[in-house]
Amino acid sequence: MVFGRTENLKKLLFISDFNRISLTNYNCWSCKKELTEKESKLQFCPCEINTILPVNNKINYFELFNINMEYNVDVKLLTKNFRQLMKKLHPDLFTLKSDLEKKFSAEQSSLVNKAYDTLKSPIKRGVYMLDLIDPHFNAEAIETHESDAEKRLILMEILELNEIIDEIKQPKEVEELAERLEEIMRPFEDELEDAFSQKNYKKAISVVSKMRYFKNVDERLKDLQLKFNIQNV
Amino acid sequence: MSVQLTRNILKNTRLLKSLDSVKIATSSYHEKVIDHYENPRNVGSLNKKDENVGTGLVGAPACGDVMKLQIKVDENGNIIDAKFKTFGCGSAIASSSLATEWIKGKTTEEALKIKNTDIARELCLPPVKLHCSMLAEDAIKAAINDYKTKKKVAQ
């Protein structure tokens, strides 16, 4: 309470600081070191103090985890890099730091969480990559129409999976479902990997459009895994 | 100590936030949607091998919802029974529940006249949920279509 006025003053300073940062993206807010574009996408200033940096909105999720932008992601490496980043960025580590640093840590770790969730999921990763290549692609993926027979098969499969989920009572059943979903998704994933590596985006759009149908089933499976405490990595 | 304290505070704010979102979610659904969602009419399945049963299966890739609507038709072309099974959001469930309620007792020709806008208006669906009522209209059409194809093959 004694520090009330100073705190307010500090807050004012932070606000003005923050405005300046968003204007000059390429300087460290603390040591004022000029950052290259690559450095500005780091989480910490490369100086000795290693100050936490604000999120550079231009960063893509692949850059964030320092992995190649390919559909075929090494999930183990992704998880390893995710944990390493979190070890440095988690808001718990910033409780004694300034408000600005707390804010940056919260924003950085929330981005890392979102990025990890996206890249880990074969469906979300496909949608995200389409978005990165051309933001119009996903709109096309929604408009894409499969042949009626193909669509019918997909829908029957989804209906059946949902019915199975409704009946699940044991962890073993959740694992069986996960395996089954993986078997269904694998051919799509292989096709998508080929399509992206050959830059055949028409094909990629068509595969993603089919995969999107399984989005809800995938979410329901994740909820079950959480409920039964099953690790899905 | 301080870490533990922040954790607790974080937990509590998260809890508050989730409570907030629950409040928003319920208040944005119209009571008619909630009624159909909580007491869905005609949930279940009919024997799809029965030649008097037509099955419509539709889905939308954008949201991943899937809707199965079945009708049982008598020799005069009247829909004597209708069942549905929908996996999706509350609006999709309400739309299909209402659709089965409406088509029961109608002839297949009358049922074909039901438009998604009628369903949306009855349930007061917001613009972002219009595709749910569209799905219900497609499901009615698909079920009637399936019934008619079956009859043609039988003849």
From TrEMBL, chain A:
Protein keywords: Chaperone
Listed CDD domains: DnaJ
UniProt GO MF annotations: ATPase activator activity; protein-folding chaperone binding
GO cellular component terms, semicolon-separated: mitochondrion
GO BP annotations listed: [2Fe-2S] cluster assembly; protein complex oligomerization
Domain J intervals: 60-132
InterPro entries per record: DnaJ_domain, HscB, HscB_C_sf, HscB_oligo_C, J_dom_sf
Family classification: Belongs to the HscB family.
UniProt-recorded name of the protein: J domain-containing protein
Organism: Brachionus calyciflorus
Lineage: Eukaryota, Metazoa, Spiralia, Gnathifera, Rotifera
Automatic annotation (TrEMBL), chain B:
GO biological process: [4Fe-4S] cluster assembly
Record keywords, A-Z: Iron, Metal-binding
Matching InterPro entries: ISCU, NIF_FeS_clus_asmbl_NifU_N
Recorded superkingdom: Eukaryota
GO cellular component: mitochondrion
Family statement: Belongs to the NifU family.
NCBIfam families, alphabetized: iscU
Annotated protein name in UniProt: Iron-sulfur cluster assembly enzyme ISCU
